[in-house]
Amino acid sequence: MCDPTVPFRLDDDETVPEVPDFELIRPIGQGGFGRVWLATNRTTGHLRAVKVISLRRRGTTDPAGREITSITRLEANLRRQHANLLTIHHVGQTAEHLFYVMDLADDATGRPASPDADYRAATLLNRLGDGPLPVNDCLRCARQLLAGLASLHEAGMVHRDVKPANCLFVDGQLKLADFGLLTEANPQISRVGTQKYMPPDGRMDARADVYAAGLAIYEMVTGLPADSFPRLGERAADVAADPTLCLLVRLALGACQPDPQQRFADADAMLREIAEPRKPAAESHGRRRWIAVSIAALAAAAALAAVCFWPGNPPRVQVNFITEPYEATILLDGVRQLRPDGTPCTTPCTIENVSAETHRVIFQHQGLPDLDAGRIDFAATRQIRAEFTPRLAR
Asked: Which residues, other chains included, contact 381 with Cβ-Cβ below 8 Å and sequence gap of 6+?
């Protein structure tokens, strides 16, 4: 699906494309490689979404050729249609255009799809416009997104453009859409896709899809944009108090590790984390320690969010702390930031209700020299990122 946030309009000299067996009513989505139309089947009257891409080359690019290659890969490698991938019913070509016919998403209002002028496709992006999803919807949508993505990874393919705008709802079921950038999994560096959902290493393999899926799940839980990761915002206390939300945040943290080798290997590995609960003995020591550290950070955020605001004191703000590597202890003005049980807050962490003044920020990480981030004015800076320099071998 093309980005539904982009205005849909035809140029003055543009005509409605001719597509066999379908009447194109109006564009409902557009992007760099084509436009999606609301269409009706001339024989059955059924509504469909039809993506149309010009066959004319634009400069050195060939968007139609790329789409044909991607759809061919999808058809050749996917053994059967998955319930959480948008169904493509037909692919065709005219003298001017490549087109393919897909299921039409539900209406964003919750009503069935219709040819009405106010129809808007129901996407995860639209739903997030109303804030974070309810707890049960978060878990359900995360599972459905990962199930669809896992089917691509199992077939040796990567999506390369996982984001809320490409998650559609059809009959209430989340379906991953837009296969125009689909390719075989490989570790080569590529900057194709949507910039803010790309991992910092730029390797567009299955772990890149994992990174993007982690950000999408983070958005479901917090209602915040992807570039706010890992800040929990107003939902910090809810996350710490709710085991399901806590689980999903831990999933996002694991998926969005800067080091690709520290992420989940693929979407199926993520899906297993939120399947039926496993016995504690099945978890490795390292995994249990990582879970415990993550819960500590979340509980710290919730506890600090409960600190009272006293009139006459400086304004209170929330500050996001991120380090590479993670799990660094935070010191403000020489004071280690602690949870109520006395264990330290560790990165990534959002600390709520900090006075909006200048504070000395120091990070401590086992086996590494202390990292002095200097004096930072929290009234002006709300996100602090720092990277440790490994200790040189003697």
From this structure: 319
